[in-house]
Amino acid sequence: MGRDLVLKITYLDSIDSTQTYLKNALKNHDLVPPHAVVAKKQIAGLGSRENRWIGIDGNLFLSFAICLDELPKDLKLESASIYFAYLLKESLSELNSKVWLKWPNDFYLDDLKIGGMITNILGDTLVCGVGLNLVKSPKGFASLDIKISKDELLKQYFKKIEKKSLWKQVFSKYELEFHRNRQFFTHENNFKILLDDVTLESDGSILSDGERIYSRR
Q1: What are the counts of helices (DSSP H) followed by strands (DSSP E) for the chain?
Q2: CB-side exposure of 140: number of CA atoms within 13 Å?
Q3: What would the pLDDT profile of 30-50 be if each residue is shown by its tens digit?
Q4: Greatest Cα pair distance in the chain
Q5: Tens digits of per-residue pLDDT, 113-166?
Q6: Which residue, 29, 97, 141, 203, is the most exposed by fewest CB within 10 angstroms?
Q7: Are 174 and 101 a contacting pair, CB within 8 Å?
Q8: DSSP code for 203
Q9: Distance separating alpha carbons of residues 60 and 30, to the nearest angstrom
């Protein structure tokens, strides 16, 4: 039996980016994994494809770091964003949200995005960042369809992370919902790929015209 994974949490009032803060703290050895950073307000959040994530007060701004040797042994690092995003999606679903996960790591309600996740490798550590519109959203986006406190959501989410479920257990549930992606696109090397034309592989990658594509976030 491996040792238990217990995430310590640092709470901040305001920060430019929880992801940037956590990475710097890890580099300077001010924090050690497993550790999470939660901010009430974020003014320069990082989004996918080098976009910024608009931080509106009251929403969720979270980053966490886990040593690579604490991850499920069957998890391919390129699919870590799917794994951790699905655990959060599952936590929300258990609280009666109709949120779904667009490949590889965007949270949607119907056809509008409400959040996303990015993952990076820093030495021997995986760093994940999450932005989620809990109460408010900018134009063109949506916010969560249930009322829930951040503390309640994080408690449920961290419990799932600390359980360290195998990738195959998480993927088997994600695979059943992949059909929700069919009318949407993903981006690869500045090209748009219709997800109706791809095949989902067991390691979380997709096949498009014979090319295997992994999440790059």
Answers
A1: 4, 14
A2: 2
A3: 999 999 999 998 876 565 544
A4: 48
A5: 999 999 999 999 999 999 999 999 989 999 999 999 999 999 999 999 999 999
A6: 29
A7: yes
A8: T
A9: 23
Task: Identify the CA nearest to 104 among candidates 171, 37, 155.
Answer: 171
CB-CB neighbours of 200 under 10 Å: 17
What is the CB neighbour count within 10 angstroms for residue 104? Answer: 28
What is the b/e burial string over 60-84, where b = at least 16 CB atoms within 10 angstroms of the residue's CB?
A: bbbbbbbeeebbbeebbebbbbbbb
Helix (H) or strand (E) holding 53: strand 52-53
Pick among 3.20.20.450, 3.90.550.10, 1.10.1670.10, 3.30.930.10: CATH of 8-176 = 3.30.930.10
pLDDT band of residue 19 (cuts 50, 70, 90) is very high
